[in-house]
Amino acid sequence: MSTERTTRLAMAPGHGVLIRREHSLVFIPNPSERSSAVITAFGEVAHEASIFEVVGDAVVEASFDVDPFVCVSFASVIQIRVFGDVDIRTDLPSVPMLSGAGSGTWVEHSAPGSGGAITAQLSSGEPLGESTFEATDLQAGTALAGGFVLHIAGPAVASDRVTMALDALGPSPVVEPAVELDEEQTLVPAAVVEAAGPSVMARACPSGHPNRPSRVTCSVCDSFLPPGDDGVTLVQRPAVATLVFDDGVKHELANPLVIGRAPSVDASDQADGQGKTLLPMDSDRISRTHLEVSIVEWDVMVSDRGSRNGTVVVPADGAPPVKIDPSTPQLIEPGAVVYFGTRSFTLRPPGHGAALEEAVR
Prior knowledge:
This protein is mainly β. The chain has four helices and 23 strands. The chain starts with 5 loop residues before the first strand and ends in a 13-residue tail after the last strand.
């Protein structure tokens, strides 16, 4: 089953600039030389999944001296970012209206779901009627426009991801032999290497929350992070993500996590200097030591530990599922879903949930 969305873009006449890529667009109602940073960043970014980060970096480097704009990404989760005096109106239940007017930085919203209609125009303008928009569809490229309506339709993301991941795992998972546990063993997570987490460079918000240095808003409290070197310091690495398992259990990822029916570590695990957590899961289609979720600086990586049934990642940007080669760790971004055996977890930003409080069944 495909995760491709169906989109239709109608534009109102005007002197603004609208640039469309396969799964994203940017609209600048009143472009000038101050728009060049946003236009260049949007057009040259290699992977659309990082559109927001790259455009955000360009705005910060320009000291926020850019024209008002709207950026929309719609590969899977619909993401909207608005900067300056622009209004977004939608029929998405979670965000009927979004405006950047009066904000010192941008405002943004994510709307998981199958789709809806998104309309953009200047905040100070009269509401655009349906007849204002020309019956056209810019598939890719640049056009003049005074506003736009983007109609998005497509299958529910969750059901598609399950289908595609199961297809990638194969139709007949191997049932692993039973694992005999000692009477004192219980299926609860346990730290197996007592070691302080490594140090990383972090940008602190006014409340002291550490963040990836490239962020412009705090991942915990959403406060603005000033550009430049101010607030960047070396800290002990905090939790970099939240794992939300398919049964609702959440785990703040501050140290590498080894998952399996009876997971263990070897000499190389002990030698890498990072604290690790063993997370047993009672499922006959999960190998004894099935996979590892590791951390490199601020990035999250998933490695298959030679499991019999494999590990599959469904990327957050709607790209096809990737079955992990045991010799090659896979970088995963927030929104990605990792399937292993009959279980799965979704990667979320840090602070999404409390620390793991009970074993995953």
